[in-house]
């Protein structure tokens, strides 16, 4: 199903990292927190419903993973790029570990799904795009995940990759620590 101005990167990864890049300051181009909070809450509910349909455990919302996700969505919006890598070229696991540390764990794993779409994207649309990508579907249905952090950022005129268009950028960071 085609969606207006929808784009999706199909590079979802699960890796282990040891260090993360510094986070940029908050973006002024975000929509009010309540508007994005609704999208984030709906994505969480839809992800958990999907996981339940597949016999998988529901994910808990993690403030630490949400902070990592927000940092990345804001950075991509400000700098006009779209990638799992940070603007400085470091991999996503190095960004996430700064917020979701390894300390005292025997096992640590993270994954990430991204999307950018028209500003009216909803949770069902986001899940449809991810489910239609084998790599993103695999991340959503990975049994080991226990936590998720979500960040949706709305930008009225996003630079670079986004061509000055009005977009919503969503980062979903998945994790487990034991």
What does this structure look like?
With 178 residues, this protein is α+β, with helices and mostly antiparallel strands. The protein has 5 helices and 5 strands. The chain has a 5-stranded mixed beta sheet, sandwiched between helices.
Keywords:
5-stranded mixed beta sheet; globular; alpha+beta; 35% helix; 5 helices; 178 residues
Major sheet summary line: 5 strands, mixed
Indicate the low-confidence ranges by residue numbers.
1-34
Tell me, what's the shape? Answer: globular
Order of helices and strands: EHEHHEHHEE
- Average per-residue pLDDT, rounded, comes to 84
Strand order of the largest sheet: 1-3-5-4-2
Number of strands: 5
The DSSP helix count reads 5
Cα distance spanning the termini: 39 Å
**Beta-strand proportion:** 15-25%
Structural class: alpha+beta
Rounded Rg: 15 Å
Helix content: 25-40%
Care to give the gist of this entry?
By secondary structure, the protein is an alpha+beta fold. It contains five helices and five strands; from the N terminus they run E-H-E-H-H-E-H-H-E-E.
């Amino acid at each position: 199903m085609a969606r207006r101005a929808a784009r999706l990167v199909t590079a979802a990864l699960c890796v282990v990292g040891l260090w993360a890049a510094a986070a940029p300051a908050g973006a002024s181009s975000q929509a009010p927190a309540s508007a994005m909070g609704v999208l984030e809450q709906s994505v969480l509910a839809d992800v958990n419903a999907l996981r339940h349909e597949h016999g998988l455990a529901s994910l808990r919302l993690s403030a630490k993973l949400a902070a990592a996700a927000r940092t990345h969505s804001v950075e991509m919006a400000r700098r006009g790029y779209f990638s799992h890598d940070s603007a400085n070229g470091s991999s996503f696991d190095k960004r996430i570990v700064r917020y979701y540390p390894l300390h005292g764990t025997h096992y640590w794993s993270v994954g990430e799904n991204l999307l950018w779409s028209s500003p009216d994207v909803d949770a069902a649309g986001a899940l449809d795009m991810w489910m239609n990508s084998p790599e993103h579907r695999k991340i959503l249905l990975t049994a080991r995940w226990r936590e998720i952090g979500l960040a949706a950022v709305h930008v009225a005129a996003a630079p670079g990759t986004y061509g000055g268009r009005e977009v919503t950028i969503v980062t979903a960071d998945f994790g487990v620590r034991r």
